[in-house]
Amino acid sequence: MDALAAEYIERGFESLFIYAREAHPGEILPHHTSFAQKLAMARRFQQEQGVRRRILVDSLDGAGHKLYGALPNMTWILLRGGLIAYKAAWTDAEDVRMAMENVTRIADLRRRGGRLAPFWTERLGYRVVDQAAFNAGLERNGPKAVAEFEAFTRRVPLDRLEE
Amino acid sequence: MSDARDDEVTAYNYAIFRGEEDFDAFAGRPHAGERAPDITLTDLDGNAVALSSLWRANHLVLEFGSYT
Description:
Chain A has a single domain (2-162), classed as 3-Layer(aba) Sandwich (Glutaredoxin), CATH 3.40.30. A two-stranded parallel ribbon of chain A has the order 1-2. A two-stranded antiparallel ribbon of chain A has the order 3-4. Chain A is elongated, with a radius of gyration of 18 Å. Chain A has helices spanning 2-8, 35-49, 63-67, 93-111, 131-141, 143-155, and strands at 13-19, 54-57, 75-78, 84-88. Chain A is of the alpha+beta class. In chain A, helix 5 packs across helix 6. Chain B has helices spanning 3-12, 23-27, 51-55, and strands at 40-43, 48-50, 59-65. In chain B, a hairpin with a 4-residue loop joins strand 1 (40-43) and strand 2 (48-50). Chain B has 3 helices and 3 strands; from the N terminus they run H-H-E-E-H-E. Chain B has a two-stranded antiparallel ribbon. Chain B has one domain (3-55). At the A-B interface, helix 1, strand 1, helix 2, strand 2 and helix 3 of A face helix 1, helix 2, strand 1, helix 3 and strand 3 of B.
């Protein structure tokens, strides 16, 4: 997503990482108990993961996160002026790229003076799951994060999309 | 903060992951084509930043997430 942000900055896109609650807290990377701690976690995330996009931190109560749906890794694209162009329940860089290309295409059509009529679409996306990287992330968070996710997956049947 | 408010903040910042994702809530409003909620966030230097101050100049791509 950082690479995508750099690639599209000249086309008028500003890409932000909105820091929300910890999705899989563990002993090493714990849940938030104060805003100062949340801010410190965001700084640590930037430094240790080398995030190049601007990071903005939500309030401790998740007020902003909740207004946008409160899922752990959503991506939203807002047009200049604040109209929602895209909302995705999960972040997939290639899917986001398609959406950014669509925004660019619409801007091009508008510049050419074409008459445009908006319409609403709904689409099912798929992403490639890197299970090894996800598991390594849980281990980095702490043993508690590993155990809780294992317990959760035992209770929940396979995604019905995979049936 | 009141006790109820404390409880709400504690529930949001759960210590134990139990599969809190609510995909049905996400599927509701706001939808594409509607106005985005304006929210005020904090940059890593501690400054308040309203999304509306940023979308005046650019399209915005917002990825929500955390370290974990």
